Amino acid sequence: MIKVEIEELKNELGKLNEALDVFSQYSSSFIDETIEAFGGMNSDFTDKMEETLDNMRDTKAEKLYNNLSSYAKSLETLIKDFEETDNSISIQLEGE
After folding, report:
1. Cα Rg for the chain, rounded, in angstroms?
2. How confident is the model at residue 27 (pLDDT cuts 50, 70, 90)?
3. How many domains are there within the chain?
């Protein structure tokens, strides 16, 4: 017999979705907006900061985010399927 803790899966999915929400803020749009904020400022610091942010564009963060997002969607489907199967079995057992 296999026992699946649906509520535990839901809790973990909730944590993953919260992490994805936070992580999504550090996308390329974050880099673009931050670089824009330095526009018009003149100092060695702003030049170095713009250069650093520009170098961050080749990060693997977007691919990681997309993979984790896909995983979360698959987990949502799995939870839904488990619940539907559980309900279907319950209905069948009640009919016996």
Report:
1. 22
2. low
3. 1
Helix-strand-coil percent breakdown of the chain, rounded to 5? 80, 0, 20
Measured distance CA(85)–CA(49) in Å, rounded: 54
**CA–CA separation, 21 vs 43, rounded Å?**
33
Whether 75 contacts 13, CB under 8 Å? yes
Any domain includes 1:
no
Percent of the chain at pLDDT exceeding 70: 95
Q: Give, to the nearest 10 degrees, the angle between helix 28-37 and helix 44-55.
A: 170
Q: Judge if pTM exceeds 0.90.
A: no
- 61 in Cβ contact with 26 (< 8 Å): yes
Using an 8 Å Cβ cutoff, are 47 and 85 in contact? no
Q: Can you list the positions of beta strands (E) in the chain?
A: none
Q: Which domain holds residue 21?
A: 6-95
- The DSSP letter of residue 14 is H
Smallest CA-to-CA distance from 21 within 72, 80, 60 is with 72
